[in-house]
Amino acid sequence: MGLALGLPVLEARSAAPIKVTSPGTVTPFPPQNFQNYGSQKVQVEYGPFTVSSQAKSPSGYSVQSLPDAQRPCTGSCYIYRQRVFLTYTNGTAAYINSGAKLLRSYISTTARMDSVCPQLYEQSFISADERLPYDLGANGTQTVGYLLPDAPMNVYAEMINYNTADEQYNLTLEFEFVPGTAPGFHHLTPYYLESSGICGSGLLTAPTPTTFNTTMPSPFTLTKPGYVYSVGGHLENGGITGALTSNGAAICSAQASYGGSVQYIDWTGTPRLSSMGVCRAVGNVTAGDQWSVTGHYDLTQHPALPIGSNNAPVIAAFVAFVDHVDVYLVIIHVRDAIVASLNDLRGRTPWRGRLYDELRRTVVTGKAAVYNLDTVTTQDAIVALQ
Description:
Elements: E1 25-29, E2 40-51, E3 61-66, E4 77-88, E5 100-113, E6 121-127, E7 134-135, E8 144-148, E9 153-161, E10 167-179, E11 186-194, E12 204-205, E13 211-215, E14 220-221, E15 226-235, E16 239-246, E17 249-258, E18 273-276, E19 278-285, E20 290-298, E21 313-314, E22 316-323, E23 328-332, H1 336-345, H2 352-361, E24 367-371, H3 378-385
Parallel strand pairs: 8-11
Antiparallel strand pairs: 1-2, 2-10, 3-9, 4-7, 4-8, 4-10, 5-6, 5-9, 11-22, 12-21, 13-20, 14-20, 15-19, 15-22, 16-17, 16-20, 17-18, 23-24
């Protein structure tokens, strides 16, 4: 039986101008990478949010849904590094050692629908209590990021207060980004899958055995080829390993670590889940690939952390960031218009953007080839298309 902790179904996107109805305090910091692209680093603090104690609320559980939240950038921007913080109002970090748990957080944009669950806006930078730091740019070595469009941004967070008194928390999102006009940057599409299924209900109740697996009831079918740059996994307490699989084979396996710092030793002295493995440069994927997620749990080795009456909430979740531009399948039938466009582009720079637009707009049949538009030359493209 699923808990009522799933993602809300949002209304259809709106054409209204950008507004901020959920304000946040923006604090700038020196960026770590891509200074030559005009990079910026900011922390956006939302809150405070009051979360009732378990003495008043059966679960001490709170959902914070912030529509039209304060954005990190003006206009569009490529976010290449992101992380989340939960703090008390005095600025002290709020972790499980002080009775605070960040169950889940993410951002969404109203400009795109989600690639896995199209009833929702596109979800990205999903995080939980281990507070996974995303580094899509690989410390400044890869010009890729999540392109946050010039559109309203929503913030969603689930928090738990295990203390006997009400608590106030601030949610802080840290972003490092370059302008959306930065040359050479590619957008990575996020794919968020969880074991409760496509458009699932979130956390599940563990079965009676203390050792078990949780797996998606049916796989997700990838509709476009691409290249997977980064994959991050998440389990709840009691989880040992998780995997993102493609056609039955693991393309990313993540090991859970417990008690990695004092912040992850709870009030009973029990080590709690503190980090999960991350996979980078996973490789090419193809349209038609069947993706699924699975997680292995052992509640004897690592006890579950209760949420109200549910003392064993479980999940296996993975988010994959895929580049559908860098490597993709081009199936084309050479038309006079395309040949004319290519001839017009001969010897001109920059030409890749226009060539890419032409290829994507053309409805074609015929020869198939995989092109990397950052390395192919104009003459290579003309020869291949003729």
